[in-house]
């Protein structure tokens, strides 16, 4: 009996998911991705974004896996949004005197 050959496919490159737009709605920041998916987080999780001036929001760069606002020196990470991770500066301690 002969051995059967197993057909294999070359490895596929993972699809890079890119954000294409963002909007604010009902206290959330909503990001639309190029695959049609929309993800959202509470805007309170990103106070730097919530408190930004309209002209600061106009200067925006859509990159693979993130959105960056150069005038704010801040951005949203798509994977972080999916995992429900707030921006670092939104986490406040309840301890005083620190």
**Counting H and I runs of at least 4 residues, what is the number of helices?**
3
- Side by side, the strands of the main sheet go 1-2-3
Element order: H for helix, E for strand: EEEHHEEEH
pLDDT < 50 runs, ≥5 residues: 90-98
Q: Please report the distance between the alpha carbons of the first and last residues.
A: 76 Å
In what range is the share of β-strand residues? 25-35%
Give the strand tally.
6
Main β-sheet description? 3 strands, antiparallel
Rg over CA atoms, rounded to whole Å, is 20 Å
**Which of globular, elongated, flat, extended, rod-shaped describes the shape?**
elongated
Average predicted confidence as pLDDT: 84
Percent helix range: 10-25%
Structural features, described:
This protein is α+β, with helices and mostly antiparallel strands and 98 residues long. Helices cover 14% and strands 30% of the residues. The chain has helices at 47-50, 54-58, 78-82, and strands at 19-25, 28-33, 38-42, 61-63, 66-69, 74-77. A 3-stranded antiparallel beta sheet has the order 1-2-3. Strands 4-5-6 form a 3-stranded antiparallel beta sheet. It starts with 18 loop residues before the first strand and ends in a 16-residue tail after the last helix. Residues 90-98 have low confidence and may be disordered.
List keywords for this structure.
98 residues; three-stranded antiparallel beta sheet; 6 strands; disordered C terminus
